[in-house]
Amino acid sequence: MSRSDTADTKTRLLDAAEHLFTEHGFAATSVRRITAEADVPLAMVSYHFGSKKGLMEAVYARALGQRESRVGYLDRLEAQAGDAPIAVPVLVEAFISSALRLTRKGNLSGAVFKQMIGRAFYEPEAGVEDFFPTEYAEAIARYKRAFERALPHLSEADVVWRMYFFVGMVAYAMAGKDVMRMTEIYQLEEAGKPEAVLRRLMPFIVAGFSAPSGEPMSGQAGALRGE
């Protein structure tokens, strides 16, 4: 098999797996079904990816893009800042800019990307629940450290919770979903346009990161439990 044939086979397997994992999930998609759609021999999955799980990891790594697209901008910001922490608004903009690049991929919409990630992270089948793309985990860890430096008065738990809300809202905005139908009721012209929605989201996120600590006092914890 020539080098060009090998590359073509690998791409066809990735394309077929991306489509089938998104439509049916990891557990419901067999290797045989993937190779049938890709029109390649069954043994090619093992040859190129080692296993079905290895193929899934490759699919999500390709969807997430290169490491440079997620942390390259952060590298440059840290170099410019020197020993000083990067300001929260700058960190939020850097993360959102990285997310926007995903919505501009010609072969992968924000909605499809969110669906793919959701299936990988939350499907309960054995072998899927422990999956988390290494490069994505690295990017999250890098941003966590940067937010901790920018917000030294907050606990680690506070920073992680705020990042959890932040990433969730960005994913929601990228997917273009409005379960409450508010954008339809109020006829917001920018609804469904990820770039415009994320730009409107940015000051909200910055304010959230800059809010006082959310650590509950002992009395507050009891009140939240209805005691």
Automatic annotation (TrEMBL):
**What Pfam families is this protein classified in?**
TetR_C_30, TetR_N
**Residues in the DNA-binding region annotation:** 30-49
Tell me the ranges covered by the HTH tetR-type domain, including all copies.
7-67
What Gene3D superfamilies does the record point to? Answer: Tetracycline Repressor, domain 2
User: What does the record give under GO molecular function?
Assistant: DNA-binding transcription factor activity; transcription cis-regulatory region binding
Q: Has UniProt tagged this entry with the keyword DNA-binding?
A: yes
Write the record's keywords in alphabetical order, separated by commas: DNA-binding
Whether DNA-binding counts among this entry's keywords is yes
Q: Which InterPro entries match?
A: Homeodomain-like_sf (IPR009057), HTH-type_TetR-like_transc_reg (IPR050109), HTH_TetR (IPR001647), PsrA_TetR_C (IPR041586), Tet_transcr_reg_TetR-rel_C_sf (IPR036271)
What protein is this chain from?
Answer: TetR family transcriptional regulator
State the organism of origin: Denitromonas iodatirespirans
Q: What is the lineage of its organism?
A: Bacteria, Pseudomonadati, Pseudomonadota, Betaproteobacteria, Rhodocyclales
